[in-house]
Amino acid sequence: MLNKYIYIVIMAVTISCNGQNTQKDEKINPMEETEISILKSALENDRYKVKSEKDFKDRILRFFGINVDSLSNKGYDEILLNEEFIDYQISKQGSYIKIGQNLLPDLDSIRQKAVVNKEKYPYIERTINLNKILFLDDPISIGRVINQDKDLAIDLVVLFNYEENKFLTSTALKNIKSLDDQPKYFNWCLLFYNDRGKEQLIRKDLLLQLQKSNTDLISSLITFIVTNKNLVTQKVTDECLAFLINIKLKESKKNEDWNNNEGFGLLSYCYDTDKDLINRFNKIDFYNYSLIKNATEAYQVFNPENQIDYKIDDPDGYTNLRKEKNRSSEVLQKIKSGEHIEVLDDEGDWYLVKTIEGEKGYVHKSRIKK
């Protein structure tokens, strides 16, 4: 009976604590509530209204990779892009994006000027333009940003993945002069879509436009990728790197002197920095980029010390090249011990190799020596 009483007390305390936590989660700073009310009213005064709850959710997912259902019902949520918080916040309560992290000063004065008197207030004008572009594709706001607010244009296109207007995209890319002072999340946003559920994560069309605006930025992105931790899968990162390197090799295609070929220099830098990259590229046939394959062959000629030399080492004096990954599979060729082979895939117990005759098949790893 005593145990039952203790259990009831514990459950009552637990329920009480859970109730307090829920109430705490729903609490909001009064100043924050006031600011949301002001910005929401200012947006509504400018005929801002999201098309539907579903459209708002879809666009938040597309532009930020964020599920709206995970956001707070009241107040603001910070926006995390590529493992860093950016200088914008989401208000699910007001259905808008806020610029900056800090609350606005002198809210009563702002309410009187911007909401009651409907005077122009620069910060609120920017907020209106931002949200009417993101959620309404408003052409007037797009025109204002193109002509008056280049920094916001860049953030819309790069950080928020907004690609609905070619003139806005062009304006944004033309005004990115350097990546040296940009935070890492900015570079990752240039390379990959925020919505990681997309079938094609790499922003290939945008990167091709960036090349036309400032090809030096493509070079900067190549060095950025190989010197920073992956935020997507290795496979997607390598595919993006190959795409960018191919762009640079195409630019300098007519330059047959490898020593003065910028694309070749960047590829060499990547291979020197990431020692396993050449093997990963080789396994996937250089993503079908013939220029990268040719440049890699030149790199191996110039850097023989970086090549891994594989030979057959079998006490029987030879080993079998098999069609499949097992000992009962069809024998395609016998390879003598000491003979050089090229390893195409070294995952698992059976390596995919190519013989000096050009035959491809599988050899057990115990019969291969570096």
From TrEMBL:
UniProt-listed Pfam families: SH3_3
SMART domains registered for this protein in UniProt: SH3b
InterPro entries to which the protein is assigned, alphabetical: SH3-like_bac-type
PROSITE patterns the record matches: PROKAR_LIPOPROTEIN (PS51257), SH3B (PS51781)
Name the UniProt record assigns to this protein: SH3b domain-containing protein
Domain SH3b: 308-370
Entry superkingdom: Bacteria
Organism per entry: Chryseobacterium potabilaquae
